[in-house]
Amino acid sequence: MFQQPLDFRDESEALYRVLAELSDADFGRRTQFKGWTLHDVVSHLHFWNWAADRSLRDAAAFADFLARALPEMAKGRGLREIETDLLDDKTGRARVEQWREFYLGMTERFLAADPKQRVAWAGPDMSVRSSISARLMETWAHGQEVYDLLGRACDHTDRIRNIADLGVRTFGWAYMNRGRIVPPSAPQVRLTAPSGATWAWNEGEAANRVEGSAVDFCKVVTQGRNVADTALRVTGPVAADWMAIAQCFAGPPQDPPPPGTRFVQ
Predict the structure, then answer these.
(1) What is the mean pLDDT of the chain?
(2) Total domains, the chain
(3) Do residues 65 and 57 make contact, with C-beta atoms less than 8 angstroms apart?
(4) Burial of 73 from C-beta contacts in 10 A (0-12 / 13-18 / 19+)
(5) Does one domain contain both 9 and 87?
(6) Rounded to an integer, what distance in angstroms lies between the CA atom of residue 46 and that of residue 31?
(7) Quick check: 84 pLDDT over 80?
């Protein structure tokens, strides 16, 4: 047993408790993320949870799924179009309950797996530990759209250490994904956790550094906020460049939201 599946479950449960209070009509409300509705957010989380679970349980079926989905993405079809084609027609609270039932079962399957086992994904292969950490990251990141729209404060916990670590480890990926040369040294990162603890990476690289709230850092690397809309202290040209393009999720390069366009309503 390892911790990340439990963190994924607990983050999902925290978001579920907020969504469970809403009416069916509420799920048609649009968030600040690409105009997605709350229904779109839950459907997206459920769809890619299903995909990650499939990559763990049936590599051949997952490869078949990618063979169908990736060409559609290459044609310029959006994720929501593809997801709508492949999901059933549940909406509103029915979709929320479907999402919850699946992630609870998925948690148990990941808990029983070898965390070092390699599994396929839309980007590079990854470990089982990294796969479920990525699902935690997506749940937390898209959850911010829900909290922002509803004007709710998220009760952040040290579970986000998984997301901060993913953000640091994907420093090189953010550059390679854009066809750019990776700087020889990653910046120092020193963050204050929700608990008040200090988390640090790359401590020898003081000339380029990112310091501040772990929540702010996680919002930047998941592209939920522009770095200009956070209180992060960014020192050095490499650190500034990284924070402008940071992307800890798979898929083609995405740009962060322009300053002032993502906020708690």
Answers:
(1) 93
(2) 2
(3) no
(4) middle
(5) yes
(6) 18
(7) no
Please tell me the distance from the alpha carbon of residue 49 to that of residue 54, in angstroms, as a whole number.
Answer: 8
Longest dimension (CA), the chain: 52
25 and 119 belong to one structural domain: yes
Name the residue among 200, 232, 228 with its Cα closest to residue 216: 232
**Could you tell me the CA-to-CA distances from 53 to 135, 171, 229 in Å, in that order?**
10, 26, 35
Q: What is the mean pLDDT of residues 226-242?
A: 98
* Strand intervals (E) in the chain: 118-119, 126-127, 188-192, 198-201, 209-213, 233-235
Residues 131 and 27 in one domain: yes
Token duo for residue 163: 């997301």
pTM for the structure as a whole:
0.94
Q: How many CA atoms lie within 13 A of 231 on its CB side?
A: 6
Tell whether 149 is covered by a domain: yes
Give the residue numbers spanning the domain of 34.
4-155
The letter for the amino acid at 206 is A
Shared domain for 133 and 192, answered yes or no, is no
Q: Are residues 168 and 139 in the same domain?
A: no
With 0-12 / 13-18 / 19 or more C-beta atoms within 10 angstroms meaning exposed / middle / buried, residue 93 is: middle
Whether pLDDT at 23 is above 80: yes
Q: What is the C-alpha radius of gyration for the chain, rounded to an integer number of angstroms? A: 18
